[in-house]
Amino acid sequence: MTNQLGAPGVSRRTAAIRVFAGLTAAGAVVGALWAWLAPPIQGVVALTRSGDRVRAYLGNDSDHFFLGAFLQVGLLGVLAVVATVLVWQWRAHRGPVQVAALAGGMAAAAGVAAGVGAVLVHWRYGSIDVDAAPVSEGNRVHYVTEAPAVFFGHGPLVIAAGILLPAAVAALTYALLTASTSRDDLGAWPPVEYAGVYPPIPVAVAPATEAADRSAAPGTAS
């Protein structure tokens, strides 16, 4: 198959910068969408008979911590797959530079989405101050609404995994697209043509066996 692709209008470096910048901007959109869709957590701050303030969640609302983080991962996963397919259509720049820009851009998109989403949900629902909750002997229960969680936890490894997972999804999708193409140069520019003739593979000749030697010896029955 001959590569009929013409020379690209932009350099490979410019294309990588555009991919990275576009994915970073898309991450901000994902963060805003997540802040709108993620369910909040309904809870209460109560005053016990001993005078202590305790905090609890209503029904199964504590599951919304997991649901909010899972929604963030799902949205970023969709962005990773769609962005990879779109970037793959930029045929002239297919190759390691493009996949590096794609993976780096998805990691940046995950970080921006997490930051934008966290800012918007805390602006929307505020922060809970248990000590400042208006509870008293006459009003022992105060209902609160807590912002959903962006990550599955607060540990550095959990946060790093949440940021790197979309980049891994994008890289895996790109690898599958690479494996599906019939050309070794991925159809990119500059084209690399192959004659289709490869050097012969030497085959080792096994030595004659004793049986063959006996059959060739004189006096052997035919």
Structural notes for this entry:
This protein has 222 residues and is mainly alpha-helical. The protein has one domain (12-193). The chain is built from 5 helices and 3 strands, in the order H-E-E-H-H-E-H-H. It has helices spanning 12-37, 64-88, 96-125, 156-180, 210-216, and strands at residues 41-47, 53-57, 141-146.
What structural keywords apply?
8% strand, 3 strands, 222 residues, single chain, three-stranded antiparallel beta sheet, 5 helices, mainly alpha, 51% helix
Q: Based on helices, strands and strand pairing, what is the structural class? A: mainly alpha
Strand order within the widest beta sheet: 2-1-3
Q: Quick one: biggest sheet?
A: 3 strands, antiparallel
H/E element order: HEEHHEHH
Net shape: elongated
Poorly predicted regions: none
Helicity range of the residues?
40-55%
Write down how many β-strands occur, each being a DSSP E stretch of 2 or more residues: 3
Distance between the termini: 55 Å
Strand share of the residues?
Answer: 5-15%
Rg: 31 Å
Mean pLDDT: 82
* Oligomeric state: single chain
Number of domains: 1
The number of helical elements comes to 5
